[in-house]
Description:
The complex is a heterodimer. By secondary structure, chain A is mainly alpha-helical. Chain A is about 75% helix and about 0% strand. Chain A has one domain (about 15-375). Chain A has helices spanning about 10-30, 35-65, 75-80, 85-95, 100, 105-110, 115-120, 125-155, 160-185, 200-225, 235-265, 270-280, 285-300, 305, 310-335, 345-365, 380. Chains A and B meet through α11 of A and loops of B.
Amino acid sequence: MENKFKITGAFKLISWGLIAIGLITFILGFIYHPESAWANYLLNNYYFLALAIGGTFWLAIQRITQSGWSSAYIRIPEAFANYIPLAAVFFVLMWFGFHDLYHWTHEKEVMQDEILQHKAPYLNIPFFVIRLIIYFAIWIYLTQKIRKVSLEEDRIDGMRPFEKSEWYSKVYIFALALTFTLASIDWIMSIDPHWYSTIFSLKNFLTGFYHGSALIVLIVIIMHKYGYYRFLNNSHMIDFSKYVFILSILWGYFWFSQFLLMWYANIPEETIYYVTRIEGPWSTLFWLNIILNTGVPFVFLLSNYLAKSKVILAITVVIIMIGMWIDLYLQIMPGARGEHHIGLLEIGSFLGYLGLFAWVVGRSMNKRALIPENHPLLEESTEHHLHEL
Amino acid sequence: MSKSTLNIIGIFDDEDKLLGSIKSLQSKGILIGDVITPYPIHGVIEALKLKTRIPYAALFYGVFAVVATFAFLYWTSVVNYPLRFGGKPQNTLSFVVVIFIMTINITALFTIVTFFLRENKGPGKVADIVHKELTNDSYAILIQKKEGMTVDDLSNINILLKETGAIEIVQKEVKP
């Protein structure tokens, strides 16, 4: 088999079909329910951006730790990086929906609200847009650099590209720590401008990392089924499922840290955030969120025997992907829209983005060799072997 | 405690030779009693087909720790000395933090103790030195000398060990 991901007719048909579904839903949505449509627009934008950021963060970690076992799979997160420029365009377009999404953009209400006035130097539209552009400029520059260096590795011999990629990954991780923290505060937390949480951005960053790495696993499993990555063995599966397992525990830990402190401190402006979500129509999703994101992976991946199974791991990843959607739905909708309703608009817009993401990732994987044959640690990956107890 | 038995011990100074030796001994049907290395080596565990049940023990201790810690907290703050503070229910969420930490503590300690008990190790154990270089840069294969072994068998083992690169072959009483 040629060392390249082939875009088949079916893949093209499905992804373009999904994009068409998404487009139609959005057009109808903007005509009939603009507020809902904007909320869904933000949700899906953030969802797939977080996956791309999480995936590239995973890549950066593999680079700085000089991991051998994963080196054959780095082309997948590298392809994720190509979604970020597209996400930048979408986020800039969100400018038209600020009024529907963010309460702090309503000037009249800010004038009457002491807390919002106090936050106005940070939460105002020009500064918001400037920050947005800075974040994306940094992310796009660094991820494209990592991509470029990785491509260089295919062409020239020697350790130079390997060392360079490590350097860019270090910078990227440091840059992400600051920029993504602020970004999640800007885009998600400011929907409820009176509410604040100090662990919020950490939790949201982890959501991206967790689900981004899980998505890489899912893509590897699917591609293995279609004949790529023939060397995928049990040791790879154990390492992949460990990644998902540990991050699921960490996700639960952060989620609970945020919840417990608010519950314990019992300050009205903080607890109102959870009160609206635990009581009323959101409560089912509230509990489902924890079960899907932490409970299911914990139970499914606890035993090595189950974790090795590709089917089990694939099912788990699909479940936690739904869990991430619910997590974001619960963070965005109560503030931005105020009513609980999952209908065609939610599903259609998600499918549209899914198609787009799949198309972008597939196309960029098609552009370069699927397995980085000059990677100095490649052999460690193709011959990966763990103690099996 | 178990009795010590006479062992034929082959000392190696190279990992690969050790692994090769294990394989060729096994292919001749010779039972390897133990392999001692200064650090874990890939392939030794697989070659000896060792199995461990320690993870199951750890899982059991973890479940036990959750139940026991919760029971203790429930008893202290709900049954024995119910004190209401901060408007919180007595059976509270803050239990979770304590349970989390105690689960880690209890599981780790109990698992270590189990391991030491199973391996006959622990405080006060007299060091059983097979060869003085084994904590430094040498590796050893131990083969138990059984009653039914003929002179031929023994010389076979000796020759095999020599051929596969043992630098030294000794006989010694070792506790299993």
